[in-house]
């Protein structure tokens, strides 16, 4: 059990309080852990990854005790009770200390010049050993929180600047973080953005076939949710299903990083690509059988069927009582899709 014998002077000497702009160091204290309140859920991280990291910290504490050369936990004065503190950085360490029966710990008490400074610090403070690295999902959560609380805007320039502050990675990695964020978070408030996972979830919500036979028990249909680009996976998986079951393979599209000025044009380009894929199948069948391509088409046995696009225009429609403009499948022009 750790008591008040923790050495503050040694801590200050081996790990002096050095903070980034916007963080004001007030003092380093040794106090009972019960004087600090830590959030139940992780403010700066995606949930579900705590257990392994806490176990690593327990092992480190058991082996090395407190490592004085590492940064200490960070707290701020509780705005509702000036005699208590609120944890900012070090909640996993607090859990490990609790499990090991620590009564006291060492903390830096800080203030923040702006809400942006507090949020930025929360995502850059995990520099102790052992530490859990930020994932892209943590970064995405940070961007979303920053936009929601108004410390940054949803403009590309503002989002990229925030990524520069909180992501300790290369320029290329930061660009990837931005691009993957935009896949599921449109910069346009009236448009919903999807990545592959989110698009499949939307298909499930709408009762559409996706991932081949994944939703067949609920829809009675086979199909794929198709993002713009290559057709290799859809071609192979779809043709295999078609040969096995002899049923149409429904292809539903969506547009990545949607922009209201190009949405219709990009949808029409994708619809054309659907037609071209069936055309490829006709040509293959023609070459394999020796039949003329037009004769193959007359058989009406194309494996793939165009199934419209996922709804992505979410601005309110007065004609629908304020519901989104698009709520079901639409055609390339945004009209309700009719098979």
Query: What structural class do helix, strand and pairing data support?
Result: alpha/beta
Task: Assign the CATH superfamily of the largest domain.
Answer: Conserved hypothetical protein from pyrococcus furiosus pfu- 392566-001, ParB domain
Using DSSP, what is the number of strands? 8
The total domain count is 2
**First CA to last CA: what distance?**
70 Å
Strand percentage lies at 5-15%
- Rg over C-alpha atoms, rounded to the nearest angstrom: 27 Å
Tally of DSSP helical segments? 12
For the largest beta sheet, what order do the strands appear in spatially?
Answer: 1-5-3-4-2
Per CATH, the class of the largest domain reads Alpha Beta
The description of the largest β-sheet is: 5 strands, mixed
* Helix/strand order, N-terminal first: HEEHEEHEHHHHHHEHEHHE
The helicity comes to: 40-55%
Instruction: Specify the overall morphology.
Output: elongated
Instruction: Give average pLDDT, whole number.
Output: 88
The stretches of 5 or more residues where confidence is low (pLDDT under 50) are: none
What is the fold-level CATH name, i.e. the topology of the largest domain?
A: Conserved hypothetical protein from pyrococcus furiosus pfu- 392566-001, ParB domain
CATH architectural group of the largest domain: Alpha-Beta Complex
């Amino acid at each position: 059990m750790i008591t008040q014998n923790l050495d503050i002077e040694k801590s200050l000497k081996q790990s002096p309080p050095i903070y980034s702009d916007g963080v004001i160091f007030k003092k380093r204290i040794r106090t009972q852990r019960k004087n600090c309140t830590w959030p139940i859920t992780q403010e700066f991280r995606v949930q579900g990854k705590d257990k392994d990291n806490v176990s690593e910290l327990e092992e480190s504490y058991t082996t090395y005790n407190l490592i004085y050369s590492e940064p200490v936990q960070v707290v701020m004065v509780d705005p509702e009770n000036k005699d208590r503190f609120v944890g900012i950085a070090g909640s996993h360490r607090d859990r490990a200390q609790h499990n090991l029966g620590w009564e006291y710990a060492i903390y830096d008490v800080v203030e923040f010049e702006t809400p942006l400074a507090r949020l930025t610090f929360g995502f850059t403070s995990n520099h102790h050993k052992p530490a859990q690295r930020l994932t892209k999902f943590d970064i995405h959560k940070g961007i979303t929180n920053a936009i929601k609380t108004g410390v940054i805007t949803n403009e590309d320039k503002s989002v990229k600047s925030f990524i520069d502050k909180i992501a300790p990675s290369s320029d290329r990695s930061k660009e990837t973080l931005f691009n993957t964020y935009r896949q599921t978070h449109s910069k346009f408030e009236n448009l919903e953005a999807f990545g592959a996972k989110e698009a499949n979830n939307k298909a499930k919500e709408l009762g559409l076939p996706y991932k081949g036979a994944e939703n067949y028990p609920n829809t009675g249909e086979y199909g794929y949710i198709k993002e713009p680009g290559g057709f290799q996976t859809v071609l192979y998986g779809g043709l295999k299903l078609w040969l096995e079951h002899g049923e149409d393979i429904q292809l539903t599209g969506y547009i990545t990083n949607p922009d209201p000025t190009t949405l219709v044009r990009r949808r029409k380009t994708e619809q054309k690509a659907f037609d071209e894929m069936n055309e490829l199948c006709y040509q293959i069948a023609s070459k394999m059988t020796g039949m003329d391509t037009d004769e193959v088409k007359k058989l009406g046995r194309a494996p793939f069927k165009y199934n419209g696009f996922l709804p992505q225009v979410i601005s309110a429609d007065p004609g629908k009582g304020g519901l989104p403009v698009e709520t079901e499948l639409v055609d390339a022009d945004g009209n309700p899709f009719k098979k």
